[in-house]
Amino acid sequence: MNKKIALILSLLLGVAAVALMFSYIQKTTEAKTKGWDMQTVLVANADLPVGATLTADNTAARSYPSKYIAGRVLTPDAAEIVIGGVLKVPAERGKPIMWTDVDLPIDTALGLASDLAANTRAVTIPINQLSSFNGMLRPGMYVDVLWTGDSAAVLPPPAPEAPPEEAADANAAPSAADVQKMMLRASSQASKTAGQPTKITTVLLQNVLVMAVGDQRGSRRNTDKPETYGTITLMLPPESARILVHAMSAGAVNLLLRHVGEADVEKGPIYVGPADVAAFLKTSTQK
Description:
The chain is α+β, with helices and mostly antiparallel strands. The protein is built from 6 helices and 11 strands. The model is unreliable at 164-168 (pLDDT under 50). The chain is elongated and about 125 Å long. The chain has 2 domains: 38-103, Antifreeze-like/N-acetylneuraminic acid synthase C-terminal domain (Type Iii Antifreeze Protein Isoform Hplc 12), CATH 3.90.1210.10; 115-161 and 172-286, no CATH class. The strands form 3 sheets. Strands 5, 6, 7, 8, 9, 10 and 11 form a 7-stranded antiparallel β-sheet that branches. Strands 1-2 form a two-stranded antiparallel ribbon.
């Protein structure tokens, strides 16, 4: 019995020794080969001087040990971006090219985002020939944004009448705002009675910068020549941008072009409804 136990212990010790040896060899091999796994990178086909333009002929995709590769190394999928770029430092034949070695043919640090003021957002809206002022709207101009839609979406429900002791002086003349609200409520009530919603137009945003028309931004030549484009991009504070996006989903948006340098903002809210149009027409016919 003792001989069998001794034999089993010997076998177990032998297995443990083999396992330890295998683990040691594996760790030693991993330590020696660490960083030698290969990665495909973009390299120079020849020694290139400062100012050389990268082309498909003087660059190539090659396998390179990862231990010699930095995080800024160019990979073959970046070739479409860097081809045409100019070297800022010399490139050695067969050595990886870094992003920081190249002045890119397009400046990725620039673009529409670079034109935004701090804490603002860019919003692109669709327009037509009419709202583009016959294609003569230009980047750098300022506009007011009008919204037309169902009055129920923006007008609060009429407040309950105040008790006699809290009511205002009945002899006091109503203000222009009071008259406008009364006309809008009367118009809304009339439409509800007829079973049709009342459409109103409101000044949604004022003095808004046009950043781009179509894909064009910045100062441009031939500013009097009409052009065709289907969108414009506006610069807005974040809250105003969200309001505009929601408003476009619930009604129609139109633009009013501002005079150069005119930055005055009217106090709101400013609404125009059917009653206002009727009153305007009545007044204009009496002149």
